[in-house]
From TrEMBL:
Keywords: DNA-binding, Phosphoprotein, Transcription, Transcription regulation, Two-component regulatory system. It is found in: Cytoplasm. The keyword Transcription applies. This is DNA-binding response regulator. Residues 134-229 bind DNA. Residues 134-229 form the OmpR/PhoB-type domain. Residues 14-127 form the Response regulatory domain.
Length: 229
């Protein structure tokens, strides 16, 4: 497995800010982006749950006063390894009972009104201690781990055969470039195969990768296949 890196502040980690107040959201998003993070922001627990299912986040900054906070309890569908660490914005001290499904043992908090410097400092510690160990080629929310030959689309692990993994990786590292059937054959099998063998392999892979979310694998008739938005 890849070793964890200790990310410096501003290493491009993806942060989900879940805050109802627009001014607070703007303050957090702007400051964290200036510090080098990628930031997505939503204002409800329901929206946050959708984002967490569809995308991989390295950290969640969560206001515990959200009226629909219980909507996040569906986070129990994630395995512990999939749950991003959570930084709570709260006036409460008893955090053990706050959305335990999201981050038991992987959480911290700052009290409101907060100092933005403290938010950045605690976020950095959470990311350093609980940062993701998956590293490898990626495109959007599609991530590969070459050490284990595993793939994820957002939080969803994709079960692939060796041939499917080789094809997906070849498409990913050549993202937005059309690959011919001949190029795919040479890379996946090392020899020529009938067109229908390639078509069946691409069809199976497309069904697994694009089962949820926007399609990433596309056909350009008469030319080949490509991966992109």
């Amino acid at each position: 497995m890849s070793e964890k890196r200790s990310p410096a502040r501003g290493d491009g980690q993806h942060v989900l800010v879940v805050v109802e107040d627009a001014e607070t959201t703007e303050l957090l998003a702007t400051t964290m982006e200036l510090a080098g993070y990628r930031v997505s922001a939503v204002s409800t627990g329901a929206e946050a749950m959708v984002r967490l299912v569809e995308h991989r986040f390295d950290l969640v900054v969560l206001d515990v006063t959200l009226p629909d906070l219980q909507g996040l309890s569906r986070g129990s569908r994630f395995t512990p390894a999939d749950r991003p660490p959570v930084l709570f914005l709260t006036a409460y001290q008893n955090l053990g009972r706050l959305v335990p499904e999201l981050g038991a043992g992987r959480e911290d908090y700052v009290t409101k009104p907060f100092r933005i410097a403290e938010v950045l400092a605690r976020a950095e510690v959470l990311l350093r201690d609980h940062g993701p160990v998956r590293e490898g080629p990626s495109y959007g929310d599609l991530i590969l781990d070459d050490d284990t030959c595993q793939a994820w689309r957002g939080q969803r692990e994709i079960d692939l055969t060796p041939a499917e993994y080789r094809l997906l990786r070849h498409l990913l590292v050549n993202a937005e470039r059309v690959l011919s059937k001949e190029q795919i054959c040479r890379h996946v099998w090392g020899e020529g195969r009938a067109d229908n063998a390639i078509e069946k392999l691409v069809s199976r892979l497309r069904h697994k990768v694009d089962r949820e979310g926007p399609a990433l694998i596309h056909t350009r008739r008469g030319f080949g296949y490509w991966l992109g938005h």
